[in-house]
Design a protein that fits this description.
This protein has about 375 residues and is α+β, with helices and mostly antiparallel strands. Helices cover about 50% and strands about 15% of the residues. It has a five-stranded mixed beta sheet with strand order 8-9-10-12-11. Strands 1-4-5-6 form a four-stranded antiparallel beta sheet. Strands 2-3-7 form a three-stranded antiparallel beta sheet, with no helix packed on it. The relative contact order is 0.07. InterPro entries: AKG_HExxH (IPR026337).
């Protein structure tokens, strides 16, 4: 059950919404956030038939009630936006009431496995998202908490990517072609680097698309298990690299939850091959980690498809990696795990650069 609930949006809500009101003893805030907790719990409880007699929810600003990692959601007329919704449960029936509106539906209507077996028309207020990739990674930017974060709290994500853009609007106009494009991008990774694909579907729960050219993508620790990607569907080589890049940032963020990896202070800055402004060792380490994996990806890809654009991109990545790894080796101070991970990066760099005639000796 916890595996279903531990979605990136839930992790964000827990640290950025629930914990502050509980810590402050804000009873009004706790009551409001209880609505959110109920929507996170409903589907896991339905699947296990563990239900209270009734549960209360709050429709969002679009009069929708969305469920994390789940392909079905409820949508009512916009006049019911931000209104409380009451659900009562009896046998296999759910009764819904919001203001004067009263509706009923079968519990099976919300469960995908049995939904397909329904012979009767389903209620018109149940909608289905066309955005689950292989049943593992959700493609979604429409959850209220995602939209609120991007509208009001994404300054750190922009800063981490060196952008001075004031906002990061979500991309929500998904089409079937978008679904095929991003599913196809994951399929490409699966076909050429199955280990990376398994890591992605094992650690990622959400890809959230951005309607911007301010950044190519990003991750943030409060959304563990999520990556944010620029909506761009005319360059699959770019998109696949971006997925591997941001998924690797996400993986390193998860490791940072259990070990600090680097010991240099944040005010100790060095030149970065990927940014105009000097960066702390932590930023250079992050860059080296993800671009080592990007280099590994292009090295594998060119073995099968030795096209010039793949080779040129690999050469560029290798050259930048040398600069970053040199800085880490000369100036970085690390924990035991951080040092071990750096040795892995150096080994991969040496193997890949030697194969591509770019081997350069690191200074000691």
């Amino acid at each position: 059950m916890w595996k279903e609930i531990l979605h990136p949006v839930f992790i964000f809500w827990l640290s950025q919404r629930w914990q502050p009101v509980v810590t402050a003893g804000d009873q009004e805030g706790i009551k409001k956030e209880q609505y959110e907790l109920n929507r996170f719990l409903l589907i896991p409880l339905l699947r296990r038939k563990l239900l209270l007699p009734s549960m209360s929810f709050l429709l969002d600003d679009r009069a929708e009630l969305r469920f994390l990692g789940h392909p079905y959601f409820l949508r009512f007329h916009v006049r019911y936006a931000n209104q409380p919704l009451e659900m009562t449960f009896h046998n296999n029936t759910i009764s819904l009431s919001v203001n004067e509106l009263v509706k009923e539906l079968s519990m099976d209507h919300l469960i995908p496995a049995s939904y397909e077996e329904q012979n009767t028309p389903y209620p018109d207020f149940i909608c289905r998202k066309m955005d689950l990739l292989d049943g593992y990674v959700e493609l979604d930017s429409s959850d209220r908490l995602i939209r609120e974060y991007l509208a009001h709290e994404s300054n750190q994500l922009l800063k981490d990517n060196g952008s001075d853009s004031p906002v990061l609007p979500p991309y929500e106009r998904y089409s079937l072609l978008d679904y095929w494009y991003f599913k196809g991008s994951l399929d490409i990774i699966r076909n050429y680097w199955i280990e990376m694909y398994k890591e992605i579907i094992g650690h990622l729960r959400l890809i959230s698309l951005l309607d911007t050219d301010a950044i190519g993508g990003g991750t943030i620790s409060s959304f563990q298990g999520a990556i944010f990607l620029q909506y761009r569907t005319n360059d699959q080589l770019y998109t696949v690299e971006n997925i591997i890049h941001e998924a690797s940032h996400n993986r390193l963020n998860q490791l940072l939850e259990v070990d600090s990896l680097f010991l240099n202070p944040q005010n100790e800055l060095f030149r970065s091959p990927w940014r105009k402004d000097p960066r702390p060792i932590s930023g250079i380490y992050h860059g080296a980690y993800v671009f080592t994996r990007v280099a590994f990806w292009y090295d594998r890809l060119q073995e099968v498809h030795p096209y010039p654009e793949i080779h040129e991109r690999l050469q560029s990545v290798i050259d930048d990696l040398f600069d970053a790894l040199s800085t880490l080796k000369q100036h970085g101070r690390f924990t035991e795990i951080g040092a071990s991970l750096l040795e892995e990066m150096l080994l991969y760099y040496s193997q890949i650069s030697k194969k591509n005639s770019r081997l350069t000796t690191f200074s000691t």
